[in-house]
Amino acid sequence: GGSSEEEFSCGEIEVHEVDPRAEDRELKDQLLRKYSGYFSSLKQEFLKKKKKGKLPKEARQKLLEWWNVHYKWPYPSETDKVSLAESTGLDQKQINNWFINQRKRHWKPSEDMQFVVMDSLNPHGASFYMDGADC
């Protein structure tokens, strides 16, 4: 009888060694080729989110000027927000957040204004304020 390869190699099976680092690099390269656009946009988002802190001084001054002129009712219209965004270089989300924070920290509506707000929330209008009246 003839001898098989196993007998010839003394029972050892030849194994091709694979470098796991080479496989990792290849996988990484494939993923980068496929998702590089997505990764770069994610990176931009993270860089934006990291960028926290004070708004530029000139932008704050313009927002405060608007605030001081409209102190009684500091709720800019959509047109005002667009105008403020253009003049300050901020985006609308920054404008909105600045006004929300400014109102929370520095604005107390007058008594008259509080009634106007309550009236808008109460569908029955003035009857809400009448003591002992039948509604």
TrEMBL record:
<dbReference type="GO" id="GO:0003677">
    <property type="term" value="F:DNA binding"/>
</dbReference>
<keyword id="KW-0371">Homeobox</keyword>
<dbReference type="InterPro" id="IPR008422">
    <property type="entry name" value="KN_HD"/>
</dbReference>
<dbReference type="InterPro" id="IPR009057">
    <property type="entry name" value="Homeodomain-like_sf"/>
</dbReference>
<dbReference type="InterPro" id="IPR001356">
    <property type="entry name" value="HD"/>
</dbReference>
<keyword id="KW-0539">Nucleus</keyword>
<dbReference type="InterPro" id="IPR005539">
    <property type="entry name" value="ELK_dom"/>
</dbReference>
<dbReference type="Pfam" id="PF05920">
    <property type="entry name" value="Homeobox_KN"/>
</dbReference>
<dbReference type="GO" id="GO:0000981">
    <property type="term" value="F:DNA-binding transcription factor activity, RNA polymerase II-specific"/>
</dbReference>
<keyword id="KW-0238">DNA-binding</keyword>
<protein>
    <submittedName>
        <fullName>Homeobox transcription factor KN4</fullName>
    </submittedName>
</protein>
<feature type="domain" description="ELK">
    <location>
        <begin position="26"/>
        <end position="46"/>
    </location>
</feature>
<feature type="DNA-binding region" description="Homeobox; TALE-type">
    <location>
        <begin position="47"/>
        <end position="110"/>
    </location>
</feature>
<dbReference type="InterPro" id="IPR017970">
    <property type="entry name" value="Homeobox_CS"/>
</dbReference>
<feature type="domain" description="Homeobox">
    <location>
        <begin position="46"/>
        <end position="109"/>
    </location>
</feature>
<dbReference type="GO" id="GO:0005634">
    <property type="term" value="C:nucleus"/>
</dbReference>
<comment type="similarity">
    <text>Belongs to the TALE/KNOX homeobox family.</text>
</comment>
<dbReference type="InterPro" id="IPR050224">
    <property type="entry name" value="TALE_homeobox"/>
</dbReference>
<dbReference type="Pfam" id="PF03789">
    <property type="entry name" value="ELK"/>
</dbReference>
